[in-house]
Structures are given as structure tokens and as C-alpha cells.
Amino acid sequence: MIGTSVFVYLGIMIAFGIIVPVAVAIWWVKTRKEKFSTVLIGALTWFVFAVILEAIPKAFLFNPGTSLGQTVMGNAVLFTLCGCLLAGVFEEVGRYVAFKTVLKKRANRETGISHGIGHGGFEAAFLLCSMGIQYISYASMINAGTFDALISQVQATGVDASSLTAIPEQLAAMTFVGILFTMFERVYAMILHVGLSILVFNSVKRSKIGLLFLSILLHAIFDAPAALYQFGILNLYVTEAISAVFAIGFFVIVYRKMYLDVLNN
Predict the structure, then answer these.
(1) Inter-helix orientation angle 36-46/76-100, to 10°
(2) Which residue in 43, 67, 114, 188 has a CA-CA distance of 20 to 30 Å to 91?
(3) Maximum distance among all Cα pairs of the chain, rounded to whole angstroms
């Protein structure tokens, strides 16, 4: 049986995923007199490029049913390179396309931050809410005694069900500290996305394509610790520490150099 506390933790995670991004977006739009449509375009950018388009190459590179997928997923270096570069290329090119097209007439320096809040905020909401809802569904099935039937159905199709069989143990071991780490991860990821949007915004407005390639590289580097964590090369605390320091440090630098300098000059 999955205890009530687990359902409470997951509910907190879902609420956090909705309230925090929305609150940040409303605060920014109201205090800076920004257009909320810029935030929405940022959210749409992430969904189209990271969820829809990026899924196409992922279907080939990370398919456990093919020899290519088995090779990539079984090798830490290939898994990290492919996963991180795909995320970097699709998300940063998505930002670039957005600033070159639908946002091309919005030249004020706040545009980059507005887009980044939408991009990172919607990612946080999407991931935390989908994860929370999925785990609540699994926990409910476990308590109702129907989860084993789900595993049997999946195994009957010939699909590897090892990830499903591990879920009861994962849910039983879930703690509030673990949920806090998950929420904290989304906070600094959102900060990183704001910084990356500032960088790509400047790439477009200054006609410096090199800044786009830099954003792709930095995005890939940021994702690398998480990929290595999945292979057990880094532990959770080291992964979170490296990622948080990288995201916050990058944001501070790009905010000072490419946002405040515009104001000061």
C-alpha cells in the first residue's frame, strides 16, 4: 500500500508546478508592462520544439527495440552526447526561430526574459504536473490492487516492463526531501532558460550567430550531469549542486552583460 503522505507530496509538487510559473509570469508582466503573449510564445516554443519535434530523432536514437537504440542507451558517452545535444539544438533553435519570426518586432530588452519565463515556466509546469498525475494514477492502482494487471498487459505486448515493476518501490520510498529536490531542480532550470533566452535574443538582435551556437553548447553542458546521474556516474547531490551552480552562475553573467548593460549604455 502507498501511504497518504505520498499522495500529499505529489499534490504539493503539482501545485508548485502550476502556481510558481504562473505567479512569476504574472509578476513580470505586470511590473514590466510586458505583453503576456510573449510569455505564451515562449511556452509554445518549448512545446513545439522540445516535445513534438525533438521526439522525432529520439524515437530512433532511444528506441530500446532497435540495435541503434540499444547501443545509444547502453553507452554513457553516447547517451549523454545524443540526449544533451538534441535538447540544446532543438530548444535553442526554437528560441532563435521565435525571435526571428513571431517576436521579430519586439526589440525591447525585456522580450528575452518574457520568452524565457514562458519557455522554462511551461516546461516546469508540464513536467511536474505530468509526473505528479502519472504517479498518483500508479499509486491509486497499487492501492486498488490493479497495478499488477497493468504490468501483465504491458509484458504481453513484448515491451520491457522493468520500469513499471520498479514503480511501487519508488513510490514507497518517496520522501518530502526528494520532492523538494525535484521542485528545486525546476526552479534553477527555469532560471537557466531565462538566461538562454536573453542570450539567443541578443544573437538575433545583434546579428551574432555565434551566440546561438554558444547557447546550444551551454544547454548541452547543463544537461550533462543529469544524463550521467542516470548511469550512476554522479550521485543526486553532486548532480543537483553542479547543475544549480552552473544555471545560476550563467544567468548572473548573461543578465549583467546582455541585459543590464543595455540599460546602462
Answers:
(1) 150
(2) 67
(3) 66
Residue 167 near residue 83 (C-beta atoms within 8 A): no
- CA distance to 14, 15, 54, 102, 129, per residue, from 134 (Å): 11, 14, 22, 34, 8
CA distances from 34 to 24, 26, 139 (A): 13, 10, 41
Question: Is the Cβ–Cβ distance between 62 and 72 less than 8 Å?
Answer: yes
Summarize pLDDT for 167-224 with one digit per residue, the tens.
999 999 999 999 999 999 999 999 999 999 999 999 999 999 999 999 999 999 999 9
C-alpha cell at 192: 537557466
C-alpha 120/C-alpha 21 separation (Å) is 8
pTM above 0.90, yes or no: yes
User: Which amino acid is located at 58 in the chain?
Assistant: K
Cβ atoms of 220 and 90 within 8 Å: the answer is no
Domain layout of the chain by residue ranges: 4-260
- Find cell 531565462 and name the residue: 194
Q: Among residues 126, 42, 203, which one has the least CA distance to residue 34? A: 42
Q: How far apart are CA 90 and CA 107, in angstroms?
A: 23
Residue 227: CB atoms within 10 A of its CB come to 21
